[in-house]
Design goal:
Blueprint lengths: L4 E7 L2 E7 L5 H9 L17 E4 L2 E4 L12 E3 L12 H8 L9 H14 L9 H7 L11 H15 L2
Parallel strand pairs: 1-5
Antiparallel strand pairs: 1-2, 3-4, 3-5
Helix pairs in contact: 2-5
The chain binds FE2/S2 (inorganic) cluster (FES).
């Protein structure tokens, strides 16, 4: 019988409990135990950002985190950001600006984009296109350039600044 450890944490706003092997990564737990397949296991080495999720208000590469380390924390995945019927403003902006190519890296990229904009909310310094590009440099897209991605995030910055 293989060893499993029970952990409990908040997942997309609701408390959950799950049993996981000690060596399972957070991205694998989210995908395999909760069917939250937005975040992808791509490089598995912290290089591509496809597995980006938010944990306790910081984005992380969930391929580099053990599932057991989610215990007691607050985890948000792309599925907790918005829904198919009610896209969150960042998701909507990516759609409207044609920033989504094959879609593989987009959940991670949108999570990181949301984080970058949220980090700067309320700052007098206006988030520039360079800030956005820097904030997303850990998220790799192999389909396209990043111009439309930056366009989408810049549109959110503008829209949220005006509300
Ligand atoms: Fe985690 Fe690439 S799969 S950074």
């Amino acid at each position: 019988m293989s060893l499993e450890i029970e952990i409990g944490f908040t997942l997309n706003g609701r408390p959950v409990k799950v049993r996981v092997p000690p060596t399972m990564t957070a991205v694998s737990m989210l995908r395999e135990k909760f069917d939250l397949t937005g975040g992808k296991l791509a490089c598995g080495e912290g290089e591509c950002g496809a597995c980006t999720v938010k944990i306790d208000n910081r984005t992380i590469n969930s391929c580099l985190m053990f599932a057991v380390d989610c215990d007691g924390r607050e985890v948000q995945t792309i599925e907790g950001l918005g829904s198919v019927k009610g896209l969150e403003i960042m998701q909507q902006a990516f759609v409207e600006h044609g920033a989504i190519q094959c879609g593989y890296c987009m959940p991670g990229m949108i999570m990181q984009a949301r984080y970058v904009v949220d980090q700067n909310a309320g700052n007098e310094h206006k988030v520039t296109r360079d800030d956005i590009a820097r904030g997303l440099e850990g998220n790799v897209c192999r389909c396209s350039g990043y111009t439309k991605v930056v366009d989408a995030v810049a549109a959110v910055v503008l829209e949220e600044a005006s509300t």
